[in-house]
User: Which sequence fits this backbone?
């Protein structure tokens, strides 16, 4: 028996776990009480980590699709050979843009993925890059990119020091936070209230988080932008906007824009009484410190970017942006890629629907169009990495059909699932406990300046490549070096590139040092660790190769398996700003134009049902339903609806309802719930496992339906290209 401490890779909370191993098997998973960040917290998914890890349906080697549509096991060399040959053939014949890339959500929980996917993108040189960002976070990135100049500069609520939290469209007591790395949120929320702070939740469902709040406000789905504009309007109308200590531009214009949205006018659209709107604004302004935070339920709506913008506008107007207890910019302990030019939207457009590029990507909602529509630049080959786009994308059934038409598809994924069943080759990463862990991405969203590194808890089986090696070999293939090239060369060349750039920076202490010397100083058992060491040494607290005394290196993290905690966040304006003006832009042009769209829809009130999604505590996107320990109980795919609505339709709990969206229909059992607003129905996201060809034996027993059989690939937030997953009109009848 031995115990290892490591990070849970399943959600954004990044809890520290204590895992007891009996040989190669997990005997017990506990929250690590000694962990400096999560202090012993563990949720049911973390407790089931061993079951994820030991799932017999996880693939233990590469698969190749045969002529008859079955899969056969093949060796790793053969698999990479096939990928090389077939990708090269497509690219040679049809050009670089004919190869597309789709990267899924586990990227943000991985060390290997964020370390190689950017290099893979660079080498592929295709415009057809897609990811979950345009199904999830892009509205935030666009709003913050335009306001702060950097799409990665997304503030997080400083929960441990705040007096007031206004949460919209987020249910962190079940999701454990998103774009907000905050382990042990239940305790932190309790502490907030115990010190006299206030929690207010705005959601069309009375969620677990809403039930734990001081106040829950029902809102009509998709209308938060109106509600928040009502708050902004109130702040000005009641003289609650102070002088900003921050460098801001556009105050007068903002005030002008808000005039069209008085509480009495917006109340009708968002279903929140004007008095409540005014009191939400007053309380936020009166609190000594406070933060507004809005997440998935508000991002994936018709006005997702405007809503995300208004959140930060409120944080600025109430003096809460960038101050302790307010909404603060995260500070990872490692160096990030140097920020480029100030953020710009739409540097190019998608071929078929002319949709704007954001952060170098095109909207995933148009992936199927790019595959289906003939013509120069048509996508004919697809690489998916850690993504289940068939269940994740709007109108997923259309994506499912589109994937059948590809000339070649390769997937890096542990499962043969709804998406990878279309692949010609599947390259499975090893078990979770065979992988190292460091939070490259989530470090940016953490509420403390914290980092933790875990080496693999278990060794790789012989001849099994790590996920880092799989990806490095794909980088080599994409670069034209071929499948036989040494994957370690990728790391060494990236290290070299980073060192050159670091030495070029004005007044860099590395200028006078030889690169060979610096290479020689890096520690680590492999290229991935050496790169991490480099990022830590060059980071804001790094040792700069001895130039900064007691600075961080990988060794510091290796010596502290319970994590290195450098304390709470500190104000970062103006250093964090990348706008060309050097100021916070309150009224960037693309936003102002979109406000006109918001205004023009003001009188529109919908009749009939609208659909929203939700997440479940014991479920993880689309890929946990195969874990027996997490199935059953509350973990079912049902249509939540209000009792009054259900009775009107003659539906009771357990009855089948037929739900019709613009492109598809599903039949699903109803669950009556007083917690859902009238006129709203809600399906959990991530279900719909009943497709032939997948190898998910447990999930297939209770497949549920996919909410994305109902959503619409044409219905997007125009600025970010993100689909309307929430607030979509649907038709509900008894089945
Ligand atoms: N247990 C668990 N945890 C997870 C995941 C999981 O699948 N399971 N997934 C992870 C991922 S990828 C993400 S992105 C995060 C998401 O985490 P959160 O951002 O917390 O999102 P959800 O839990 O989906 O909750 C969204 C809420 O928005 C509400 N909502 C819907 N429409 C509207 C609207 O128009 N306005 C408002 N104000 N509210 C609305 C819904 O009722 C729902 O309660 O969770 C992560 N954590
Ligand atoms: N209608 C509706 N649609 C939604 C949402 C919604 O709320 N409503 N939520 C959206 C959101 S927030 C998100 S993030 C997306 C998620 O979209 P995706 O990321 O495409 O979907 P996931 O279900 O997270 O699938 C993750 C995939 O990665 C694989 N995987 C797991 N771990 C690893 C690993 O370590 N390495 C590799 N290579 N693969 C791994 C899993 O087997 C699975 O195939 O869906 C979006 N779609
Ligand atoms: S909250 Fe998230 S990180 Fe923590 S144990 Fe649960 S799944 Fe893992
Ligand atoms: Mo997500």
Assistant:
């Amino acid at each position: 028996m031995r115990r290892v401490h490591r990070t849970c890779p399943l959600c954004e909370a990044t809890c520290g776990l204590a895992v007891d191993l009996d040989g190669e098997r997990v005997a017990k998973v506990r929250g690590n009480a000694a962990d400096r960040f999560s202090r012993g917290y563990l949720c049911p998914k973390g407790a089931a980590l061993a079951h994820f890890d030991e799932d017999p349906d996880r693939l233990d080697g590469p698969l190749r699709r045969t002529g008859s549509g079955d899969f056969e096991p093949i060796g790793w060399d053969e698999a990479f050979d096939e990928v090389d040959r077939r990708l090269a053939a497509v690219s040679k014949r049809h050009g670089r843009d004919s190869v597309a890339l789709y990267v899924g959500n586990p990227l943000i929980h991985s060390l290997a993925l964020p370390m190689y996917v950017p290099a893979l993108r660079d080498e592929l040189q295709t415009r057809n890059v897609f990811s979950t960002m345009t199904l999830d976070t892009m509205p935030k990135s666009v709003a913050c990119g335009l306001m702060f100049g950097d799409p990665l500069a997304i503030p997080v609520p400083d929960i441990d020091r705040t007096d007031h939290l206004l949460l919209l469209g987020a249910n962190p007591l079940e999701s454990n936070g998103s774009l907000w790395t905050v382990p042990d949120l239940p305790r932190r929320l309790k502490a907030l209230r115990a010190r006299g702070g206030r929690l207010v939740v705005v959601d069309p469902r009375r969620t677990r988080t809403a039930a734990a709040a001081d106040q829950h406000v029902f809102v009509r789905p998709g209308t938060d932008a109106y509600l928040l504009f009502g708050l902004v309007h109130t702040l000005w109308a009641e003289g609650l906007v102070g002088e900003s200590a921050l460098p801001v531009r556009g105050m007068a214009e903002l005030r002008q824009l808000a005039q069209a949205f008085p509480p009495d006018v917006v109340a009708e659209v968002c279903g929140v009484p004007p008095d409540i709107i005014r009191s939400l604004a007053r309380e936020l302004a009166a609190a000594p410190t406070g933060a507004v935070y809005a997440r998935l339920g508000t991002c994936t709506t018709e006005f997702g970017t405007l809503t995300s913008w208004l959140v930060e506008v409120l944080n600025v107007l109430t003096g809460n942006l960038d101050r302790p207890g307010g909404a603060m910019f995260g500070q990872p302990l490692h160096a990030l890629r140097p920020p480029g030019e100030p953020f710009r939207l739409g540097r190019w457009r998608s071929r078929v629907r002319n949709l704007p590029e954001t952060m170098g990507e095109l909207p995933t909602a148009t992936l199927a169009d790019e595959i289906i529509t003939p013509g120069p630049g048509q996508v004919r080959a697809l690489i998916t990495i850690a993504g289940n786009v068939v269940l994740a994308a709007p109108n997923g059934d259309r994506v499912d059909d589109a994937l059948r038409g590809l000339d070649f598809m390769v997937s890096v994924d542990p499962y043969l699932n709804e998406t990878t069943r279309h692949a010609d080759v599947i390259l499975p990463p090893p078990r979770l406990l065979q992988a190292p862990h460091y939070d490259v991405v989530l470090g940016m969203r953490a509420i403390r300046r914290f980092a933790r590194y875990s080496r693999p808890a278990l060794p790789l089986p012989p001849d099994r490549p790590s996920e880092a090696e799989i990806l490095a070999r794909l980088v080599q293939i994409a670069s034209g070096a071929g499948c036989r090239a040494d994957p370690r060369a990728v790391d060494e060349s990236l290290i070299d590139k980073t060192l050159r750039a670091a030495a070029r920076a004005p007044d860099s202490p590395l200028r006078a040092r030889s690169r060979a010397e610096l290479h020689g100083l890096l520690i680590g058992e492999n290229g991935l660790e050496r790169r991490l060491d480099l990022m830590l040494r060059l980071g804001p607290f790094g040792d700069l190769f001895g130039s900064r005394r007691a600075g961080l290196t990988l060794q510091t993290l290796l010596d502290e398996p319970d994590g290195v905690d450098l304390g709470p966040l500190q104000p970062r304006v103006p250093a964090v700003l990348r706008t060309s003006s050097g100021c916070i832009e309150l009224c960037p042009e693309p936003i102002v134009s979109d406000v006109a769209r918001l205004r023009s829809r003001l009188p529109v009130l919908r009749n009939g049902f609208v659909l929203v999604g939700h997440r479940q505590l014991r479920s993880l996107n689309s890929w946990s339903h195969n874990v027996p320990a997490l199935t059953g109980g509350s973990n079912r795919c049902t249509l939540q609806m209000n009792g009054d609505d259900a009775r009107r339709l003659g539906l009771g709990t357990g009855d089948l309802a037929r739900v019709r969206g613009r492109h598809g229909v599903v039949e699903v059992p109803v669950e009556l719930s007083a917690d859902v607003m009238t006129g709203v129905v809600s399906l959990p996201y991530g279900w719909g496992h009943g497709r032939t060809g997948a190898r998910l034996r447990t999930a297939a027993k209770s497949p549920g339906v996919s909410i994305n059989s109902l959503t619409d690939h044409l219905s997007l937030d125009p600025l970010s290209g993100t689909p309307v997953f929430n607030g979509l009109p649907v038709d509900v009848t008894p089945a």
Q: What stands out?
A: The CA atoms of residues 41 and 184 lie 5 Å apart. The first strand starts at residue 2 and ends at 7. Residues 11, 105, 136, 168-172, 174-176, 178, 202-205, 207, 219, 221-222, 224, 295-298, 301, 612, 614-617, 619-621, 686, 726-727 surround MGD (ligand 1) (CB under 6 Å).
